[in-house]
Amino acid sequence: MPALALVAVAIWLMGHRPAPGIPESGAVAFLVAFGLTPFVRLLAERTGALDRPDERKQHGAATPKLGGVAVIAGFVLALGQRPLVDHELLAIAVAALLLMLAGAVDDTRGLSAPVRLGLQVLCAVAVIAAGVRLDLLPGPAGATVNVALSVLWIVGITNAYNFIDGIDGLAVSLGGLIALLLALVGRGSGQTGLVQVCAALVGALLGFLPHNLRVGRPASIFLGDSGSASIGFLLAALAIKEDWAEGDPLVALAAPVLIFSVLIYDMVRTTVSRVASGKVRGFRQWIDYVGRDHIHHRFTDLLGSPRRALVLILALALGVGLSALGLRHGKSGEAVLFLVHGALVLLVVAVLETAAIRARPGPPGRPPEA
User: Fold this and answer.
1) DSSP element (H, E) containing 323
2) I need a labelling partner for 201 at 20 to 30 A (CA). Which of 82, 278, 338, 351 fits?
3) Distance of CA 265 to CAs 268, 336, 345, 347, Å?
4) DSSP letter string over 242-296?
5) Mean pLDDT calculated for residue range 42-60
6) Could you write out the DSSP letters of every residue in 295-320?
């Protein structure tokens, strides 16, 4: 089947139109990612790019990584079939490719956390210089704050997406859902270019998903850092590429915050928990710390199954993210209401999961985990 998918792409490319439509871009990305993944898996096995199990991981056998190579290849090839005159999009694509290559090196040989973070900051600054930035405050002082917030947004979302890649299918399906929501909001505001880019990303992620989320069997390949860093960066940059509400910065900020709410919630909650418990006492410890306290770990422990945790997280992301669709013609007051609604939903989730964890009996002589 994967080989047939690549053959189908080759045939289509020989007779395709110069400017393919949105469905065609998504279909090409799907077929390329689906067909290329088995070959990437073989490459990962031969180069030693394997994710080996340990006490904090869900899988029980060494699993190939480098899955991001197939996803980014499908995404780039789908976009390459249309004239690329958008310099901002070109900058985003080049930066994502650089992070994918750096992630591939990390998957095979390993890179330190400061090096990965430094590359993310450099890529964020590059796309901001190309014009991809938040536009919230006016004036020269406001421009400086906008750049700082843009770097914080891109780097923060990139790492939040990397952190959530902990159970089969979660990062891939959540990334596809976020890209779909961005496309729907973009379609409502007439941003056809953004819709086509998001469609290509959705198609590439869906093409990889059957290899990463299999019925009755564990994943045959993971995204790896080659995928989590580059895809997280793509999503973060695309979210601030366009102005969701010209002249209304609150609405412009509310839409991406709602769409990325689960990633933001997980990042904030784990950071606060680690600092409050003394596990993290500085920035270097924060970027180096690895633990089983992310939302997918907690939901898996509570529900007893990674698949149940996956469904619940996707439902939560969809439920809050759909609020962004209501802001297409909204005002600041409506943006505040939607943000409060999303915050209350996540607050209820935090309270319920904390209560459930504390009520769960632990080993004799050991208090329940907070």
Assistant:
1) none
2) 338
3) 5, 17, 11, 9
4) S-SSTT-HHHHHHHHHHHTHHHHHHHHHHHHHHHHHTS--SHHHHHH---S-SHH
5) 79
6) HHHHHHHHHS-HHHHHHHHHHHHHHH
Are 339 and 250 within 8 A, CB to CB?
Answer: no
Rounded CA-CA distance 45/66 in Å is: 10
346 in Cβ contact with 265 (< 8 Å): yes
What are the tokens at 212? 């990463």
Cite the DSSP H helix spans in 67-169: 67-79, 87-108, 113-129, 139-163
Alpha-carbon gap, residue 267 to 316, rounded angstroms: 15
Residue ranges covered by each domain of the chain: 2-359
Please state the rounded mean pLDDT for residues 113-120: 92
| Residue that has been written with the tokens 């609405």 in this structure | 251
Place of tokens 């891109």: 154
CB 49 within 8 A of CB 64: yes
Q: Any bridge partners for residue 50, and if so which?
A: 64
Q: List, in sequence order, every residue forming a beta bridge with 64; answer none if it has no partner.
A: 50
Model confidence band, residue 334 (pLDDT cutoffs 50, 70, 90): confident
**Statement: the pTM of the whole predicted model exceeds 0.85:** yes
Whether residue 237 contacts residue 132, with contact meaning beta carbons closer than 8 Å, is answered with yes
Tell me which amino acid residue 80 is: G
Nearest-angstrom CA–CA distance, 166 and 294: 9
**Residue 277 pLDDT class (50, 70, 90 cuts):** confident
Q: Tokens 């077929």 appear where? A: 31
134: left (phi over 0), alpha (psi -120 to 50) or beta: beta
